[in-house]
User: Which sequence fits this backbone?
C-alpha cells in the first residue's frame, strides 16, 4: 500500500512541530488521559498498564511529528505492530480509529494553543498543518484497517482449524470421554444428547449447492467436515421421524448422498460415519439420490464388502462377462429388468420394449452361462448379489 508523504515542510511549520517534539513526554501523558476519558477500552488499559500505554502514545506522537517535520513518508511498521497486538487483544477497530482521530485533534490543538511562537503563523500555513496531520491520521487508519482484516482472517482460519480438529475427533472416534464429547458438542454447536445421523455427500463444485448449504438455515443443527470430493456432516434430529425430512431435502439437491441410520449419542458417530460411507457406495457411479444404510440390504452388503463382492461377481458371471460387450450389456440389462419387475418376464419386456418371449430366451441364456436356475431362491439371491456388484463397479464389465 502506498503511504502518503508530507513533503516540503515550510520553516515555520517545522519550528512548530519541533517545539511539539520537545514536549512529547508531557503530551503523551495528556493524550493517554484523554483517550482513557473518551474510550472505555483505553480506560482499562490505562488502569492496568499505564506506563506501557504512555510509551505507545509517546512513540506514535514522536513518529508522526518527526515525519511531518522532515517531510518524509510516515513509518507504519510500528503502527501495524501495535494494531496487530490490540486486534488480538480484542480491542475493536472502531475504538482504535476513534483514538487516532482524537489524537489528530489533540496534536492540532496542542500546536495551535500551547506552543509559544517567535512569530505568528498564517491561516494558510495552519490549514496546511491541519491537512498534514490528517493525512498522517488517514494513513494510520488505513494501515489499521488492513491489519485488522488480516487478523480477522487469521483468527477465523485458526478458529476453523480448531473446530475441524474437534470435529475430526468426534468423527474418527478419538474423542470418547463423555466430558470431552460434551465440550465438542458445545464447540460444534450440537446438542450434547439426542438423535444424530451422519451424512456423506459428494461435492458439486459450487459450495452453494453442497449438502451443508442445503441444510444451512434449516431447523436441524449440524457440523460439517469438508473434503476435496465429499463432505461429512453430523446432523442433530429433534425426533427420529425427521430422518425422512432430511432425506427429502437432500434428495432434491441433485447430489449423491449416503446417510447412516440414527444413533442415540455422539459416541456412536464413528460407527455412523462408516455406515454413511457404505450407504454412499450404494449409489452407482454418476447417479444422484440419497441412500440410507440398510434400506437395501443386499446392496448394503455388496457396498460394505466391495472386494469380496467383486471376486464373487467375477466368478459367478464369468461367462457373461466374457461375452462381447453388446451381448453382455443385453443380458445384464435383461436380468436387471427381470429383478425390477419382480421376476415377471412380461413386466421386464415392457421395461425393455421387447416381446416377453425375447426376455425368456435371454433368461435361459443367462441360466446356461451361469449355471444358476432362476426358479431356485438361492440362485436368484446369488445372481442379484453379483448383479449389484457389477452395477456398483462398472470396471467389472
Assistant:
Amino acid at each position: 500500500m502506498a503511504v502518503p508523504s508530507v513533503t516540503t515542510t515550510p520553516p515555520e511549520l517545522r519550528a512548530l512541530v519541533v517545539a511539539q517534539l520537545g514536549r512529547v513526554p508531557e503530551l503523551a501523558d495528556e493524550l493517554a488521559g484523554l483517550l482513557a476519558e473518551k474510550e472505555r477500552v483505553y480506560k482499562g488499559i490505562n488502569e492496568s498498564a499505564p506506563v506501557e500505554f504512555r510509551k505507545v502514545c509517546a512513540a506514535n506522537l514522536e513518529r508522526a511529528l518527526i515525519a511531518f517535520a522532515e517531510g518524509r513518508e510516515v513509518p507504519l511498521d510500528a503502527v501495524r505492530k501495535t494494531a496487530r497486538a490490540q486486534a488480538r487483544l480484542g480491542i475493536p477497530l472502531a475504538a482504535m480509529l476513534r483514538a487516532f482521530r482524537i489524537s489528530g485533534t489533540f496534536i492540532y490543538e496542542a500546536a495551535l494553543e500551547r506552543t509559544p511562537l517567535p512569530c505568528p503563523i498564517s491561516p494558510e500555513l495552519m490549514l496546511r498543518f491541519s491537512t498534514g496531520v490528517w493525512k498522517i491520521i488517514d494513513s494510520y487508519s488505513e494501515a489499521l484497517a488492513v491489519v485488522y482484516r488480516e487478523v480477522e482472517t487469521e483468527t477465523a482460519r485458526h478458529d476453523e482449524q480448531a473446530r475441524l480438529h474437534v470435529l475430526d475427533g468426534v468423527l474418527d472416534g478419538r474423542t470418547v470421554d463423555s466430558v470431552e464429547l460434551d465440550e465438542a458438542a458445545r464447540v460444534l454447536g450440537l446438542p450434547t444428547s439426542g438423535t444424530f445421523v451422519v451424512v456423506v455427500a459428494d461435492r458439486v463444485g459450487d459450495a452453494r449447492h453442497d449438502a451443508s448449504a442445503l441444510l444451512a438455515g434449516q431447523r436441524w443443527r449440524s457440523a460439517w467436515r469438508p473434503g476435496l470430493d465429499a463432505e461429512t456432516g453430523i446432523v442433530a434430529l429433534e425426533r427420529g421421524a425427521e430422518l425422512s425430512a432430511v432425506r427429502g431435502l437432500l434428495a432434491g439437491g441433485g447430489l449423491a448422498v449416503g446417510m447412516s441410520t440414527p444413533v442415540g449419542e455422539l459416541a456412536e458417530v464413528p460407527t455412523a460415519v462408516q455406515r454413511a460411507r457404505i450407504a454412499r457406495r450404494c449409489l452407482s457411479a454418476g447417479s444422484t439420490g440419497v441412500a440410507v444404510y440398510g434400506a437395501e440390504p443386499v446392496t448394503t452388503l455388496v457396498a460394505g464388502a466391495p472386494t469380496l463382492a467383486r471376486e464373487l461377481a467375477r466368478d459367478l458371471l464369468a461367462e457373461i462377462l466374457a461375452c462381447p460387450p453388446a451381448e453382455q450389456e443385453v443380458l445384464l440389462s435383461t436380468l436387471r429388468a427381470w429383478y425390477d419387475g419382480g421376476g415377471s418376464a412380461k413386466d421386464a419386456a415392457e421395461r425393455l420394449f421387447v416381446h416377453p418371449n425375447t426376455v425368456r430366451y435371454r433368461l435361459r441364456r443367462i441360466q446356461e452361462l451361469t449355471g444358476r436356475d432362476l426358479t431356485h431362491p438361492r440362485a436368484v439371491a446369488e445372481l442379484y448379489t453379483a448383479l449389484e456388484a457389477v452395477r456398483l463397479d462398472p470396471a467389472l464389465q
